[in-house]
Amino acid sequence: MKMFMVKSFIIAALMFISVLTGMELANNGIQKMKGYQDPNFQNAVSINETGTDLKATFLGKNISNHDIEAKKKKLEEINAYNFFSSMGRKMSDGLTKASESLIDLVVK
Q1: What is the C-alpha to C-alpha distance for residues 6 and 54, in angstroms, rounded to an integer?
Q2: What are the pLDDT digits (tens) for 44-72?
Q3: Helix (H, G, I), strand (E, B) or coil at 61
């Protein structure tokens, strides 16, 4: 069992390294295909930190903290019901109560 876990970890690490290498090679290939360095060629996501100010850009659109707060407020107004979240909470509460009662039974 120990060797299986070691082999699995090594294979997962190799796959992770392969994916990162493939992404780097693809990026280099795209730049070579263009034939020149384009200053307008932007990354998909960029984060710039200037002092205490943090600015993020996602696919060329600037994202500010105000946008995130407005979306959060909008979601709170909607009061979206997540079935899986409530089911998980109920299961957690049930398991907690069951384990507490089992511990109380063993202690007494």
Answers
A1: 41
A2: 666 677 776 667 776 666 766 666 677 77
A3: strand
* CB distance 54 to 67 below 8 Å: no
Mention every residue, 6+ apart, whose C-beta is less than 8 A from residue 73: none
Per-residue pLDDT reduced to its tens digit, 21-48:
999 888 888 877 876 666 666 566 666 7
Instruction: For 62-75, give one letter per residue: b (16+ CB within 10 A) or e.
Output: eeeeeeeeeeeeee
CB-count burial class (<10 Å; 0-12, 13-18, 19+) for 57 = middle
Count, residues in the chain: 108
* 47 touches 65 (CB < 8 A): no
Give the predicted TM-score (pTM) of the model.
0.33
Pair 47, 54: CB distance under 8 Å: yes
